[in-house]
Amino acid sequence: MEISELRGQVDQIDDEIVQLFKNRMALSAQIADCKKEQDLPVFVPARERSILKEVAEKAGPEMANYTQVLYSMIFELSRSYQSKRLNQQSELYRRITRAIEETPSLFPPAPMVACQGVEGAYSQIASEKIFKNPFLFYFKSFDAVFSAIEQGLCEYGVLPIENSTAGSVNKVYDLMIRHNFSIVRTFRLKVDHNLLANKGAKIEQIREIISHEQAISQCSEFLSTLKDVKITAVDNTAIAAETVANSGRMDVAALSSRSCAELYGLSCLRPGVQDKGNNRTRFICISKKLEIYPGSDKTSIMMVLSHRPGALYKVLARMYVLGINVTKLESRPIPDRDFEFMFYFDLDTSIYSEEFVQLMCELEDLCEEFKYLGSYSEVV
């Protein structure tokens, strides 16, 4: 038989599948109406498990897994369609709506902002890009920045969350599990690392280089060209520059910003030593109160999923069904819980879209724990 004839038969079967799918979704809509009248939940896991077992047996050993995957997707489509028909509004959606109504139209120009490190830190530079005239308060650790927001010591905090070269800042992701906050804006800062030393020092003299671990990772190619040089990690690139200045040593240097060279009276032995020219760090701006400013088109969420096959797939399938793009997916182990992970998602979706509303009303039913981190716009 010619391939064209086989494809013709496939096309005919596809036509039948489309009609049957439409019929099935129409029945799902009627079932949704019945559930609404009888106050029944949309998701009935026991029935879905029973159907998956039944269709796998009908399909036979060779097609069992394929059939279960197909029906899992059909279930996701049916539940999404039913939820939309029922127009269910969760408490989370009502909280988001209140935040949209209560948040001012303009971003505050001069709030109190918490940063990790000391003066000259990249977090300071990012803060001054996000706000016009921020009042900056410096804290020793990322944890202290989160605590300052929770305790109301500062209105906002600015923290690095990922880098285009070195990847995620895992310490910040781990702290996001423990603290309560909302993301109100993000900013991508172009980062240029420079080798800074006390005036009069020469690169041949350098026997120790200090910086933050992310900066060290971002400059690995340059560092590999140096011989017999000790690499020391500290809490912040600005702290590294300050430490070099205070040491008075001619054999120690820091990987830090050009602004730190001027700030701490250092000379630049080598400019732009990062591995990639387009090296950018993404910062999150957090607050205690949920604030959603006009134009927010990105959303961040965290969730704990059940530890069984298909749990993550179901969440991603629901997002796929709604046409929502996942721009970042990160997993971090949950402290004191063996082999359990918190999943972090960045979603590309406007807060004003029907798809966003529907997803926020459905997600809590798909996971064991759910945390809405906020909706915001990103400054580049």
What would you say this structure looks like, in words?
- The chain is an alpha/beta fold and 380 residues long.
- It is 42% helix and 26% strand.
- It is elongated.
- The protein starts with a helix and ends with a strand.
Poorly predicted tracts of residues: none
Order of helices and strands: HHHHEHEHEEHEEEHHEHEHEEEHEEHE
Class derived from helix and strand content: alpha/beta
Give average pLDDT, whole number: 91
- The helicity comes to 40-55%
- What is the radius of gyration computed over CA atoms, rounded to a whole number of angstroms? 26 Å
Q: What is the CA-CA span between the terminal residues? A: 58 Å
- The quaternary state of the protein chains shown equals single chain
Share in β-strands:
25-35%
User: Main beta sheet: strand number and arrangement?
Assistant: 10 strands, mixed
What is the overall silhouette?
A: elongated
Number of helices: 13
The number of E-state strands comes to: 15
